[in-house]
Fold:
Amino acid sequence: MPLLPEPLQRLTQAFERLPGIGPKTASRLAFYILKAPDPVSTELAEALKGLRASIGTCPVCFNITLADQSQCDICGDAHRDGSIVCVVEDPMDVLAIERAGAFQGKYHVLQGAISPIEGIGPDDLRIRELEERVKAGGIQEIIIATNPSMEGDATALYIKKQLALYPVHITRLARGLPVGGDLEYTDQTTILRALAGRQDM
Amino acid sequence: MPLLPEPLQRLTQAFERLPGIGPKTASRLAFYILKAPDPVSTELAEALKGLRASIGTCPVCFNITLADQSQCDICGDAHRDGSIVCVVEDPMDVLAIERAGAFQGKYHVLQGAISPIEGIGPDDLRIRELEERVKAGGIQEIIIATNPSMEGDATALYIKKQLALYPVHITRLARGLPVGGDLEYTDQTTILRALAGRQDM
Structure:
């Protein structure tokens, strides 16, 4: 006999599959939804429905965007400085930097970092596409904002080597970032400091 | 301009409305669902759909149950000892005790605790229904397992007074529970100890 009525058990298990949500949090969320006003549940269900079909990848910077857009809002924003490009691992890193609110350039999302252990090499990332953007001209500075981890550092060094022949200034976010940490968890003040103190590499 | 594409923003906001989930966790969950295999998202959406309509309240013990059941699985289980009834505040407390796996009696869910601050009095709880169950006979022991908080203690004392005239043994979970804490967060070992060391009141 299950401990919970089947529909509640099912919702609990669906929550448990999400990262960072254990059995107790999952059942707490399920019970909350059971008692909460109706919009809490229906809005979550509606938002889940068709999420993936509606989200695509920007062909310029490889950040996420609406599936029917030819490029993302940031790439299409004429007010942003296209001569300075911030290179990050994931779309969540773009979000973290945008939240800090101090960067007015554009982005390039690598979609990961070089990791021999996980079998991810340079060709699995959007590094070639970054090189194409640099080759096309108009970019004066590349800020490498990969995570301050072994993989992020390796990726940064690889990119620096790949772009060595181009007349572009390459910087890396200052080591205000906690080493071994994750960019997306960094608080806004630290991100602001790291942007301001970025150094030549 | 929103920081995220609208469908992702919407999902993030839906997650943010859940208890204990802040903006960063919410966006992390939304990004996870975007990248996760399809069942993670569809199963969550399906489980949310019609949850409330499918869940009802057991008319005997007031625990949650399937809407079309005349009583819950525990009340209907002939193998469980109906002469011993454990009184808890919420359905999640039943789950916590069932997970400990040491209790073979039945339950009574008060659906809250007496709290003058929140304006919850004895009549807002299922105390009268508990008295009716005791009056009907067959119950030898009432284990009061309300939270070890001011409200839980007040509720326990009130119930003890209400049942004073009936020939029923009233016990309270042992003070192995951390005072001021919440029953549903208690680890299983502590619950087992509290059950074993329950005391007369």
Notes: The mean pLDDT of chain B is 88. The beta strands of chain B are 55-57, 64-66, 81-88, 105-109, 141-144, 169-172, 199-200. The longest helix of chain B spans residues 23-35.
